[in-house]
Every structure is written in C-alpha cells, then in structure tokens.
Amino acid sequence: MTDAPAPWREGWDERADSPFTGRTPQQDSPTFRTLTYEVDGRIARITFDRPEHGNAITADTPVELAAAVERADLDPRVHVMLLSGRGKGFCGGYDLSIYAENLDRGDSGAVDTTGTVLDPVVQARNHDPSGQWDPMIDYAMMSRFNRGFASLLHANKPVVAKLHGFAVAGGTDIALYADQIICADDTRIGYPPTRVWGVPAAGMWAHRLGDQRAKRLLLTGDCLTGTQAAEWGLAVESVPADQLDARTEELVARIARMPINQLMMVKLALNSALISSGVHTSTMISTVFDGVARHTREGFAFQTRAATVGFRQAVQERDEPFGDAKRR
C-alpha cells in the first residue's frame, strides 16, 4: 500500500512529472489599497479591506480585484478563490462620499489619472447640470469598473463569494459575477439606488434570478435577506451568521479537492450558456442607463442633496417613503 494520493487528486504542482516542477511561484503577498490576497493551500483568499468604509468601492477596487483574480488564475497551487469582506459587511457599494458628496475632489486611484476619463475634475465637469453631458465619457469610466468586477466571471477557476452583513448597490455588481454565493441568513442583498440615481451597471440580476424576481427587486429597490436569496436561487446556501465561516470553509475545501482542469472545464462549459444568454449586452446597456439615471432631473436633485446634507441623510430621505430607511 502507498500513502500517495491517486493521480487525479494531485495538483498541477504536485506531480513528479509536472511541468511546474522546480518552478516556485511568487510567495510574497502583493500590497493593495482596497483588499488583501493570500494563498492558503489550494485556496486563494481575496478579502475587501476597507472595513471602516463598509468596503466601499473606489477607483482602485476594480483594478486590484482583477489583478488578484489573475494572480490566482495563473498560480498552479490555486484551485478555487474565496471572495469576502472584512468588518461588518461584504461591500456597501461605491464610496459615495467621493462620487456623490465631493465629485470634483474624488479619489482617482493609485495611478495619476489627470486628464483621463477617470480624472475627478473631468467627471465633475461632465456632470454639470448647466453643461452638456457626454454619456460616453461616463460610460468609459463605469465600464472600467465592470471589467474589473467581471474578472470573477471570466476567470478560469471558480470563485465563491461569502456575503455577510450587507451586499448592496455596487457590492452586488461584484457579488453576482461570482460562481457561487453563500451568505448569512441576515445579510441584506439588493440595489436600493434604483429608487433614484442608479441602475445596476453589471446587468446580472435577470441572469441570476430570472425576469420576474429581478423586476420585483429592481422596480422597488427592495432588498432580500440571505435566507430569501437562497430560497430564490441567488445564493447556493444561507446559514446563521455564526455558522457562515465554517460552512464556507467546508464548501471551498470540497471544491479544492477537484482537479484544476476539471474545475476549469466545468466552469467554462456552464459559463458558455450564461454568456450566450446575453450577459455582455446586458452589461453594456445597463452601464449606459446607469449613467443616464445619474443625469436625469431626479438624479441631479439627489446628488445635489447629498452634496448639501451628506450622502447618509440623502439616502435616509430616499428610503423613508418605502418604510425601510436605516441609518448605517
């Protein structure tokens, strides 16, 4: 008898005749501004790391997320990626202290973007109610976010998103690109900005939930609980919050036992059906309409109010008629 694993249990880097033999991948953990990355056995752990801001999205987020995903995709040790958020929730959407309250002083990211479509001054000028709005300047900025988030979908290896606390607004643009979602029962999941000033730019809701249930959420801006998300098929599983970590580890460990090439082939085969259903078209149209929503009379009024009283108060006023206003 031998204690050696069956050949199909060995990873790409574990076989004696592996093409990776003697070729050790980078061991250092890259430094990011918005997230952390580490490899733990066969699992790459990507964790949003702006807990004091609800892991809100900045200009760096899509670039860093895509870089982390690519690193995991190319690493022969990694079989599965686990995406999560540090602190009270997964992701609360875009950092609107930048994008709503102080548009012309926003953070354009780690790289100097002066004079590009990412330049906060350029975007502020294009958002001037007294000026002429160019929708393609807006689209060029927002499509960059979507390309970064969609790296989860287009990665060769599977991605599991672990949701807790809240995954709302732009946070769902990220989460819905994952291959599997597992969440705590009390997680709030939804896109309240459809009430004013937004359309889900990723365009993934109908593809994940179907027409009727997607419309039920987006025509009201209501949120699901994690329990409802699992019942509706948006999440593969929902568990009590104190069991989420353990149950997620069980799931990713089970996936990690699979050969990488099997995982890749299964994901690519299943994604071919998803992509042929029009994901790219939905994303393009939704991104354009998201820009339009921020430049309607109502959109300008909301942004002006946020700049005057602060985004939290503006959101409180937005949600009060629906009976679910909540101070964060």
Structural description of this entry:
The chain is α/β, with parallel strands linked by helices and 328 residues long. The chain has a single domain (27-322), classed as 2-enoyl-CoA Hydratase, Chain A, domain 1 (Alpha-Beta Complex), CATH 3.90.226.10. The chain is built from 14 helices and nine strands. It has helices spanning 60-74, 96-99, 120-126, 135-149, 151-154, 170-175, 205-209, 211-218, 226-232, 244-256, 260-276, 279-293, 297-309, 311-319, and strands at 35-40, 43-48, 80-85, 159-163, 166-168, 180-184, 188-190, 223-225, 237-239. It has a six-stranded mixed β-sheet, sandwiched between helices. Helix 1 links the parallel strand 2 and strand 3. Helix 4 crosses helix 12. The longest helix is centred in the C-terminal third of the chain and has 17 residues, at 260-276. It is globular, with a radius of gyration of 21 Å. The model has no long low-confidence stretch (mean pLDDT 93).
Name the features.
single chain, 328 residues, alpha/beta, 2-enoyl-CoA Hydratase, Chain A, domain 1, six-stranded mixed sheet, three-stranded mixed sheet, 9 strands, 12% strand
